[in-house]
Amino acid sequence: MMSTSQKIVPHLWFDKEAFEAAKFYTSIFPESRILNRTTIPDTPSGDAEEVSFELWGQKFMAISAGPHFQFNPSISFMVNFDPSRLPDAAEKLERVWSKLSEGGTVLMPLNSYPFSEKYGWIQDKYGLSWQLILTNPEGEERPVIIPSIMFVGENCGNAEEAANFYLSIFKNAKSGNIVRYPQGMDPEKEGTIMFSDFSLENQWFVAMDSAQDHSFQLNEAISFMVYCETQEEIDFYWSELSAVPESEQCGWLKDKFGISWQIVPLVMEEMMNSGTPDQIARVTQATLQMKKLDMEKLQKAFNGG
User: Coil, strand or helix: which one is 153?
Assistant: First the structure.
């Protein structure tokens, strides 16, 4: 069974490169491994491939399911290199930066900034964005890899409201740091969020506002899977989070801020990992008929009923 520290798992949507990307990332970060690889037959995108993997202890899911969504920097992954926990933290940061740079695009150069003596933001060759930072080790310890959500365009100014919204929904939740923009940092509005972080079910998130002229918005390329043990739990998260009826499909929903979530039964991962090709095909076809997932119907499909 999955531990509570992995109740919420980032999910990455690729066209065809999920396994290739997983191999690339697990070769770059320490304490990383591919966990499972499954073919999901006869989806609307044809046969899709699902890959689960760990990077530095953080679990990820990825799928190759067609060119429907492209990554952009509205959701990135912050990687904390903490000198108090990691020998040669600065050198390790530079090595990871060098590898992620291959075929990538620099969004903020690796340099010294007021908030860190070594920081850079890069979009790798698959389009996924990473913020590498040499952290200040004071205060409560944070995980090494943290999803970071940037609220831009019409969403700018919503970072604090969104964090409070999620903190009110998830039971095991706590707020962390908040740093607000001061006066005189145009176009940023004074008092909006320069940096904040919060924890939901032991998964930390970063949230920030940016009033810069960005050409991207949140989309389904990165979603967050919430593993549920009961139908009641699925029903609860679905009713609390879903705000865009036309986005409800196969356990996916979109909330009022534009972030995509997948509300899935924990047992479904076990089905997909351990099932025969026929069982996986039946579960897939059952899933495709649903908006909110029904555990009883999925189990019946798996059993051949």
Answer: helix
